[in-house]
Amino acid sequence: MCISILIPFYNTKFEYFKECLDSIENQTFNKTYETIIINDGSNIDITNKIKEYIKTLKKEFKIYDLDNNYGIVYALNFGLLKCSFNLIARMDSDDIMKLDRLQKQYNYMLSNKECVILGGQCEIIEENTKKIKYVTNHNNIITKHLVKKEELTWFINHPTIMYKKDIILKVGPYNEDLKGHAEDTYLWIQLLKNGYELHNLNDIILTYRDLPDSLSHNFKFDVTKDIIKWINTL
User: What tens-digit pLDDT sequence spans the chain (234 residues)?
Assistant: First the structure.
């Protein structure tokens, strides 16, 4: 047993998705890993391009087509059940893994058996120029006390996450009633409420492409207000 990589996608630009897939294909990690791709109702042209490109790759990529665009929360929960391994690495279809990401996270989780969820730092780049706009600097250990004391609303990067499937399914999974909200942060709060700590590597393990039409720029609700409300339940 080893790692499943989980990627939902909806009409991602082919050139961005190609960079994402190449970064997975070229990982330094030499143990078994699979990539589970959930196609959340993308158009047929993009879907066919992705499927044709996957055929040229050597690693194991599996793609599951949903019959409609249900949204990222549904796609993630669907994908969780398709993952063969208990260790799952999250990834967005327009981001790029650093080539040693899987190795670093696997080593950390192997050495820290109590760790159920592990993120890392990411560099955020501008879409066209690829200029680095910002590098995250989240704490190594995120506790309930820290989040509540500092009223932290952003403390871990979802596309960098590696977590244990059995714990996520027990505590969660992602709340499908929160479409348009920060459903990932809600899940992290539930983990904290259930006595788990969240861990972050200090290393930059992902390049995050800042797109104007991304979900993080187009929430339907005031997510900061949501998160503070959830923090107050800790």
Answer: 699 999 999 999 999 999 999 999 999 999 999 999 999 999 999 999 999 999 999 999 999 999 999 999 999 999 999 999 999 999 999 999 999 999 999 999 999 999 999 999 999 999 888 899 999 999 999 999 999 999 999 999 999 999 999 999 999 999 999 877 789 999 999 999 999 999 999 999 999 999 875 555 444 567 899 999 999 999
The sign one gets for the Cα dihedral 214, 22, 54, 128 is positive
- Bridge partners (DSSP) of residue 118 are 162, 199
Determine contact, residues 135/160, Cβ cutoff 8 Å: no
C-alpha dist (Å) from residue 172 to 7, 102, 121: 18, 24, 24
Pairing of strands 60-65, 96-97: unpaired
What DSSP line would sit under 146-170, residue for residue? HHHHHT-S--S-GGG-EEEHHHHHH
Query: Which residues make beta-bridge pairs with 65?
Result: 39
Compute the residue count for the chain: 234
Closest to 88 (Cα-Cα) out of 1, 18, 172, 148: 1
Cα–Cα distance for residue pair 218/204, rounded to 1 Å: 25
